[in-house]
Design goal:
The complex is a heterotrimer of chains A (506), B (256) and C (198).
Chain A (H helix, E strand, L loop, with lengths): L9 E5 L6 H8 L10 E3 L3 E2 L2 E2 H12 E4 L12 H11 L4 H14 L15 H13 L5 E5 L7 H17 L3 E5 L12 E5 L5 E5 L1 H15 L5 H10 L32 E13 L2 E12 L3 E6 L5 H8 L7 E6 L9 H7 E4 L12 H6 L4 H13 L4 H4 L9 H13 L5 E5 L7 H15 L4 E5 L3 H7 L2 E6 L2 E7 L24
Parallel strand pairs in A: 1-7, 1-8, 5-6, 6-7, 12-16, 12-17, 14-15, 15-16
Antiparallel strand pairs in A: 3-4, 8-9, 10-11, 10-13, 17-18
Chain B lengths: L1 H5 L3 H4 L2 H4 L2 H16 L5 H15 L6 H8 L2 H14 L11 E5 L2 E4 H26 L3 H10 L5 H11 L2 H17 L9 H23 L17 H22 L2
Antiparallel strand pairs in B: 1-2
Chain C lengths: L3 E3 L13 H26 L1 H5 L4 H4 L9 H9 L4 H17 L5 H19 L7 H22 L6 H32 L9
Bound molecules: adenosine-5'-triphosphate (2 copies) and magnesium ion (2 copies).
């Protein structure tokens, strides 16, 4: 691939999962091959100088990097210290640092939080803190790899607003990697589209790229802005995989917003009564939650970062024990079931795929604890999730791309076809193909009467799949009703701290 | 319990001991340790333990209940060490030593028991000093002080500090791994493989942190300081006072 | 105009430059074991103390848990100083989290790490076979044994010191050397040690 970037412009990199976007980001940041061993060919120049010549020091002086997982980018305990970290390393004068740190924080909407403990911030705030830390030294180039993957809509909006402002000032060149491009597309001066093999599919201004290669990009599995997708879908039939959504079997065609046919309402499978749970004494994260779910129901758990979705999900399948209240799963208390029994009745996919891997090879991971009948279904499922065993079976789960890891973690649970399926952020990091296959697989399973509960920030997924939305707010149920009546809240867009009150030291 | 240790409260950090140089406190603690090691009398450790405890709740700003909680596990350890030394004391086989008690083959001597008590008190004193040090010291300031005042290499110090910040994460990793096993139908909730899983996740997390630190030019050259740790009169006063107290406590041991 | 090059290949001799990754991974191992130390300390001074009250040297068969980072970290990182650094970090963390041995934990960590470090230095940081690991582990245990004798068992008879020493050495070879090798192999299989020498 080859491209040139004007100073101050913004490049949006799009491409299917596993196409090498993250790898490209690390190469641009000078971390490959200088810090991470790899074989590199070609030329990569920054300000007219080869990155390899610059060495890590020279590159780091010019580049800022923001990655997907906010918590892994925090080095220091206090917010201001974390922002200052990059300045200290570049030997800024103390007085200059003292001026710059509050500025950088204010620039991302975190003004006034200087003395907070960084690890106590919400996910959205942490990600903006990472952005402030990257921007503080005024880098010439800022690289962001799926910075919004773990953020709620409010946090995403706040981060994008900060980026838009930065772009407006034309002081920093931006390279942004994203799957969902609705918000990023308008920001971009230039699009770099990759295909599944990491080859350059097209590069150029957004309008030109969309006109020239929109259909090819969609076919390769890349998301386009929603408006553009509609246009494409209207003008000529896209490839089958690009048509999106579970709608094929549903009543309303395939315009990307249809939902599966009328769900079969059956017996009640999950009931929670007055659930209350706290990790730390006096800080409940789930408060007085009651809900019931029946066979065939598709429930979306939505709410801001830290509102308790993941915690509630784990309570419902008995992975956590409530402090108060009761959960019944098929008439039994799931927290007391034997592991084997629990696994037959319910499935849970964790938010962070890496933390749930238990084996050293992909194939061992997905077949762990399965019956022979289930093992027989593995190859087909893995192919449908674009993780064919002949290519991925021998690999380490930890050396997959982010999207591949997500699909592997889904496969481990979907293969068991449990009656109650709780998925935590099932669609993050997924390209169009991954999303479409997931929806198809889910539909086949749900049509047989399973119950789905999905915690998600993905509004598209909510509209495509769910028939009921439960919104949480600081652990309380804020609203519970049919999806048609649910209006996505934009709370948190201002970036107000969602974290519990904590004394600010000075 | 760990959280209380990981995030010392403001009253502790703003106290007199909290504001002193962590390096000086560390030096004092080590000096007291050496002092404790050279005496086999019960009175010096008893005095030093009392002083440390009193200092902790007065000039250390530690609430008595928190300090008591922190030193609670000490008693069992102290009794254990004391019994061990009393049971296996050199003097127990010395016919000249005054016998206190004989239980079949076991012979306890007055000297052995006295030494056991002294060693038990030594454990108590060491534990009290350590608890007061940890509860009045902010890890970031300790690291700053080690680098600025103690000339410790900055890359290693801040690398260790970053890793220290990941401690709460280890607990979450462990919980998630155990839950992941359970939902896949695997029994044995304390499987030894969990240790491997934990280390894998710790290393992955370390990789990402290192990446983020490299991207922020960590270790790329000379470094400046956002937080200065300066020598204060307080540090000198603290050093002098604790030296006097140590000497006095040791004198209690030799005075008859 | 295209140039092709390989990343700096890890050459035969030991590479003594610490990358950020080396530092952070060694520190992470130290911190992880610092938490293990803390938990082991609670067991050591609680249930174990009571259960083995009348056969104290038996407890020392589990002593080597305190020594693992001094061998595991250098085995992974292979840099001079890794044993001392990781063991000191682990000791410091457990002291901070609340150890019965307070600041003395730092002193223990120093002597234990330094002893293992010496053995690796004698092997010129080139050999990482089991015998070298076992020697480092035993050296570390020996340092701990002397330290404990002076500080905590000052009055105990020579015979019992020897019994303790033997128990500690056995535990060092099995838990530290054997355990580190096994852990290292598992980590390598999981694919998380790419970029580190093997
Ligand atoms: N550490 C690694 N060792 C070997 N191969 C890797 C490693 N990390 C990623 N890969 C492989 O390299 C390819 C590109 O990975 P990369 O992470 O750059 O993809 P990506 O475009 O960012 O995908 P995603 O959108 O899913 O994040 C993938 O096929 C992946 O499996
Ligand atoms: N293991 C834990 N220990 C302590 N606190 C925790 C733990 N896990 C989560 N929390 C806290 O509980 C609250 C709810 O967390 P939870 O992960 O359930 O939120 P969420 O709605 O899933 O958020 P997100 O959208 O970021 O995934 C947060 O404030 C979080 O910091
Ligand atoms: Mg990626
Ligand atoms: Mg969550």
């Amino acid at each position: 691939m080859s491209f040139d970037l004007e100073p101050g412009s913004a490049l949006l990199v799009v491409g299917p999962s596993g196409s090498g976007k993250s790898t490209l980001a690390l190469a641009l940041a000078g971390l490959i091959p200088n810090e991470i061993p790899a074989t590199v060919s070609g030329q990569l120049a920054l300000d007219g100088r080869e990155i390899r010549e610059l060495g890590p020091v020279g590159v780091a002086a010019r580049v800022g990097l923001v990655l997907q997982d906010p918590s892994a980018q925090l080095v220091m305990d206090r917010v201001e210290d974390d922002v200052a970290f990059g300045l200290e390393n570049r030997a800024w004068a103390p007085s200059a640092m003292r001026d710059r740190v509050p500025d950088a924080l204010a620039g991302v909407g975190l003004g006034g939080l200087e003395r907070r403990r960084s690890r106590r911030l919400s996910g959205g705030q942490q990600q903006r803190l990472a952005l402030a830390g990257a921007l503080a030294p005024r880098p010439g180039l800022l690289i962001l790899d799926e910075p919004t993957a773990n953020l709620d809509p409010g946090g995403t909006a706040a981060l994008m607003a900060a980026l838009t402002e930065l772009h407006g000032s034309r002081t920093t060149t931006i390279v942004l990697i994203e799957h969902r491009v609705d918000q990023a597309w308008p920001l971009a001066d230039l699009i770099l589209a990759l295909d599944a093999d990491g080859q350059q599919l097209d590069a150029g201004p957004p309008a030109a790229v969309a006109a020239r290669s929109g259909a090819r990009m969609a076919a390769a599995g890349t998301w386009l802005p929603t408006a553009l997708e509609r246009e494409l879908a209207g003008s000529r039939p896209l490839t089958e995989s690009a048509a999106g959504s579970l709608g094929a079997g549903g009543p309303s065609g395939s315009d990307g917003t249809s939902r599966p046919g009328t769900p079969i309402r059956g017996a009640e499978v999950v009931r929670a009564t007055d659930l209350r749970f706290a990790f730390e004494l006096g800080r409940p994260v789930v408060r007085d939650v009651s809900l019931a779910a029946t066979e065939g129901e598709r429930i979306a758990l939505v709410g801001a970062n830290g509102s308790g979705k993941s915690t509630l999900g784990r309570l419902l399948v008995g992975l956590l024990r409530p402090d108060r209240g009761t959960v019944t799963l098929d008439g039994a208390d799931p927290a007391r079931l034997a592991a084997a029994d629990l696994a037959r009745r319910a499935g849970y996919v964790f938010q962070d795929p890496e933390r749930q891997f238990l084996a050293e090879r992909v194939e061992d991971e997905v077949t762990l604890g399965l019956t022979p009948a289930e093992v027989a279904r593995v190859p087909e499922l893995m192919s449908r999730l674009s993780l064919p065993l002949d290519r991925f079976g021998e690999r380490s789960p930890y050396r997959l791309s982010g999207g591949e890891q997500r699909r592997l973690s889904l496969a481990c649970i979907l293969i068991r076809r449990p009656r109650v399926l709780v998925l935590d952020e099932p669609t993050f990091g997924q390209d169009r193909n991954g999303y479409t296959s997931l929806l198809e697989i889910l539909r086949e399973h749900l049509d047989q009467g399973a119950c789905l509960i999905a915690a998600t920030h993905d509004e598209r997924f909510v509209r495509d799949v769910a028939d009921r939305a439960i919104e949480l707010d600081e652990g309380w149920v804020f609203s519970d009703g049919p999806v048609d009546q649910w209006a996505p809240a934009v709370s948190g867009a201002t970036g107000e701290p969602a974290a519990p009150a904590e004394s600010a030291r000075s | 319990m760990i959280t209380a240790r990981l995030e010392p409260s403001d009253s502790q950090l703003d106290s007199l001991l909290g504001r002193a140089s962590p390096l000086v406190k560390l030096g004092i603690s080590l000096a007291w340790l050496v002092g404790l090691a050279i005496t086999l009398e019960p009175r010096p450790p008893l005095a030093l333990a009392t002083i440390a405890f009193a200092a902790g709740i007065t000039v250390g700003g530690i609430r008595p209940r928190i300090l008591l909680g922190a030193v609670a596990p000490l008693w069992l350890a102290a009794v254990g060490i004391g019994t061990f030394n009393a049971l296996f004391s050199v003097s127990n086989v010395d016919p000249a030593a005054a016998e206190l008690l004989r239980l079949g083959p076991i012979r306890l001597t007055i000297e052995g028991v006295t030494n056991g008590v002294a060693l038990a008190l030594r454990v108590v004193a060491i534990g009290c000093v350590g608890a007061v040090f940890a509860l009045t010291t902010d890890p970031t300031r300790l690291t700053d002080s080690l680098v600025q005042q103690g000339r410790m290499p900055a890359r290693f110090a801040y690398g260790a500090l970053a890793a220290y910040g990941a401690i709460p994460r280890f607990g979450e990793d462990l919980a998630t791994l155990r839950q992941a096993r359970r939902i896949r139908g695997l029994g044995g909730s304390w499987h030894p493989r969990l240790l491997v899983g934990l280390l894998v996740l710790a290393i992955r997390h370390g990789d990402r942190m290192a990446l983020s630190m490299d991207a922020r030019a960590f270790g790329s050259g000379p470094r400046t300081r956002y937080r200065e740790v300066r020598w204060q009169l307080l540090d000198l006063a603290l050093a002098v006072v604790s030296a006097v107290l140590l000497a006095a406590a040791l004198w209690l041991g030799v005075a008859r | 105009m295209t140039t092709t090059f390989d990343s700096p290949v890890l050459s035969a001799g030991p590479d003594t430059r610490w990358r950020t990754r080396d530092i952070v991974i060694a520190a992470v191992i130290g911190v992880a074991f610092g938490v293990v130390f803390w938990a082991w300390g609670v067991i050591w001074n609680g249930p174990l103390e009571v259960a083995l009250a009348f056969a104290p040297p038996l407890k020392d068969l589990g002593y080597a848990v305190w020594l693992v980072p001094a061998v595991l970290a250098p085995l992974i990182i292979r840099k001079p100083g890794a044993a001392l650094f990781a063991e000191m970090v682990a000791a410091g963390v457990s002291a901070f989290l609340g150890s019965v041995w307070g600041v003395d934990t730092l002193l223990s960590g120093f002597v234990q790490g330094a002893a293992a470090e010496l053995v690796f230095a004698f092997a010129l940081y080139r050999s990482w076979a089991f015998p070298v690991l076992a020697m480092a582990a035993v050296a570390s245990a020996a340092a701990a044994w002397i330290h404990d004798w002076a500080l905590y068992y000052a009055d105990a008879a020579l015979e019992i010191q020897v019994v303790r020493g033997v128990a500690m050495a056995i535990s060092a070879v099995v838990i530290v050397a054997g355990g580190s090798l096994a852990l290292h192999r598992s980590l390598k299989r999981a694919g998380v040690l790419e970029g580190f020498p093997d």
